[in-house]
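[agent] plan:
  1. take the single chain provided in the ticket
  2. run structure prediction with default settings
  3. attach structure tokens to the ticket
  4. add a short note for the reviewer (M.T.)
[agent] executing step 1
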Amino acid sequence: MFDASQPGAPLALDGVWLTLPSAAGPVEILRGLDFTVDAGERVAVVGPSGSGKSTLIAIAAGLERPSRGKVRLLGQELSRLDEDGRAKLRRGRVSLVFQAFHLLPNMTAEENVAAPLEIAGAWGAARTAREWLDRVGLSTRLRHYPHQLSGGEQQRVALARALAPSPALLFADEPTGNLDHDNARHIADLMFELSAQTGAALVLVTHDEALAARADRIARMAAGRVEG
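[agent] step 2 finished; step 3 output follows
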């Protein structure tokens, strides 16, 4: 096993298990999983449905607690932090993009991107939001609400929202899964280009082998473990 306290790694999981109860008895979702991501590294996580890919992100981001094992995120051992502590650790430093866009329906594109910045107390949140929406090609859609945007446009807003705080680590869980081929390719291009520009490490869960091949490394999951 690698050392979960190694310096310079924004993310390290060491011997992580997640066991959940069920009517038929305990179900092991993750089974002694080891996984690490270096600073600025882009890692694609692939594997069949039910292999634990999305659970890996939930555990790694501190959204869910493992049954046992160590998770070290941005230098902090997550087991030592309560829910508020984990939220504070993520704020402005860890971002997530999902297959579902999770935009606030009563906010414009600009407001959706600016909101996390304002919560974090960032100066000039509205200006930063406009700059990022311009970078993803939506400078003419600032005042549009999510229902007025196409699926590809909504995912670009979500990507701008995720990268605007300049996070150290970006998690993306099937970010192109709900998009047609052209929009999926455009979002993938933007995600890799912008993560490279900002230096954010990227953990990308995808079923698309062509998309995974663009990463620096591919981690293949099966039965709750990373096999390579």
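[agent] step 4 note for reviewer: The helical segments are 53-60, 83-90, 109-119, 125-135, 151-163, 181-198, 209-212.
[agent] ticket updated
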